[in-house]
Amino acid sequence: MSTPDVDVLIVGAGLSGIGAAHHLRTAFPGRTYTILEARDAIGGTWDLFRYPGVRSDSDMHTLGYRFRPWTQPKAIADGPSILAYVRDTAADAGIDRHVRFGHRVVRASWSTADAQWTVEARHDGSPVTLTARFLYVCSGYYDYDGGHTPDFPGVERFRGTVVHPQRWPADLDHAGKNVVVVGSGATAVTLVPAMAEDAAHVTMLQRSPSYIMTLPSEDRLANTAKRVLGVRRGYFLARWKNVLVGTFIYQLSRRRPRVVRNLIRKLAIRQLPPGYDVDTHFKPRYQPWDQRLCLVPDGDLFAAIRSGRASVVTDRIAEFTESGLRLESGATVPADVVVTATGLRLLAFGGMELIVDGRAVELPKTMAYKGMMLSDVPNFAFTIGYTNASWTLKADLVSEYVVRLLRHMDDGGYDVAVPVNDDPAVTERPLLDFDAGYVLRSIDEFPRAGSRAPWQLGMSYAHDVVNLRHGKMNDGAMRFTRRTVPAVR
204, 312 in Cβ contact below 8 A? Predict the structure, then answer.
């Protein structure tokens, strides 16, 4: 068996990848690792999105790393601040020196005989090959090359500018112009108040409403706790406070949806102008948490509507005209700039091809073990965060589990760890049980989840803390083996 280039190869230098590297280097100072990053900078999502007002839709006490307290006063942070936080984490730990930029992974092949991965990437148009004992994919599940934009009739006639938030032009000037933001999700409710500061008017054009809740941009309890108890203890307290509050709201939404729906409606009425048609523009057809709740810090979206700088129109686009949009109701909306905040596209593992002992892995035929490994795919882990809470809460736990797994392999002298589903009673489920459009469009291309543990993608942080941080390694589904060395004749 040839000696691999690195012990662990991480794919992706975003929030998850930098966190994974930090956990690995802390637990195993002597173990080698490399991060392959397709882009030219650290940051992942937070380096990709550059649209006005880009910010987190989770509080930074849970979106921040467990090992690195968020120290700024704002809990709902802007994109540049989050990007700086990720890059500072990498630089302070020397992780940035282990990143190879501009390396897009296209194929990863596992050899049982060698007990290692051979990973093929493209760099400046040329192939690059690296070998590793363990492959850890932290590339998220978005397609970074482009978002989802429907085929709008007549868009070629439009004389203005059409832009998707994922590809925001640095030179776009919307000052004094009529802007239409198509969509009602987290990106749309972020863009509208941000662009309304300079635009002549911003219209949020939605086919149907989303649930929108106001959250203070600063967490007073968290800031007080950090001041009184110290940064680390205060951060720990704020983190668990927000986990418990978020869990309570989610569970209440699933068990008493009418209560949460009525509460959100009443809060919207208080923040909108008197007589506003709340039920047309802010009453979704689905139940709370069938899709992710949209958070607006300090009610900035509602403030923009009250001021008259922004408005909401609930209708469907019939066609683009030279000067704007004609709607199915017959109404028209003038526009100089149209922002298609119409969603993202999903892409499993950055589009890389997986091969195990010469056979291509068909992802929809695999099952996700604990939402972080694949059945019959050895020495491989990936990160998918929570849909009902902060991404990093799960990313930290996955990293902790990978550390435990590698330590268990070291202690037992094992070369291979592979989940095996040989329980005929386990039936298939979608990996993400979520009704968002971007999920429904692509979920069939992803691995499947199972009907029982350990083949379920957990959505409870407290439950995962127990199972991923303290659960048994030998659970009947995870198999550990040693490489068989051929006898010398």
Answer: yes
pTM listed for this prediction: 0.94
| pLDDT single digits (tens) 278-320 | 999 999 999 998 888 899 999 999 999 999 999 999 999 999 9
pLDDT, tens digit, for every residue of 242-267?
999 999 999 999 999 999 999 999 99
Determine the topology of domain 6-144+345-481 in CATH.
FAD/NAD(P)-binding domain (3.50.50)
Domain with CATH 3.50.50.60 in the chain: 6-144+345-481, 155-340
Task: Name the architecture of domain 155-340.
Answer: 3-Layer(bba) Sandwich (3.50)
pLDDT of residue 443: 78
